[in-house]
Amino acid sequence: MNTITAILVLCSSFCFAQQNQDIEKPIRNLFLGMKNADPELVKTAFAENAVLQTITKDGTVKSDNIQEFIGTVSKFTKGDLDERIVVEAIHTDGNLASVFTPYSFYLKGKLSHCGANSFQLVKQNNEWKIQYIIDTRRKENCKEIK
């Protein structure tokens, strides 16, 4: 009985780890595309009608246009944009995933700001896509993420 339990635990751990990698893939591609100044890779991370928002210091929620954001990436040189994240939590229910990631953002090698991202992802055609991002941004109390 203990051997069967151990095998089941091992198999479920592997399946859970693989699911998390699949969920993280568009998030990792977003930041890799930014770092490589590759708007096409950035575009693949998003669902068709994705939403991008930021919470300002005074609590106002500011919306950004995804297509404009993708276009901005192409205006930089490889290595100029470097957002480093730590995945703190992933929650799923069917075709919905929620991912929380503190981050540090570097512009041309210099720490620019930090905060946290909250991603909502949807699974469409067996592929996870970012449907919604909301983030915070601050310049104080930033911890560098390697």
Automatic annotation (TrEMBL):
Record's keyword annotation contains Signal: yes
Lineage summary: Bacteria, Pseudomonadati, Bacteroidota, Flavobacteriia, Flavobacteriales
Keywords associated with the record: Signal
Designated name of the protein: Lumazine-binding
Database matches in SUPFAM superfamilies: NTF2-like (SSF54427)
Signal peptide: 1-17
Keyword Signal among record annotations: yes
Xref: InterPro entries: FrzH/put_lumazine-bd, NTF2-like_dom_sf
Gene3D superfamilies (UniProt xref): 3.10.450.50
Pfam hit, one: Lumazine_bd_2
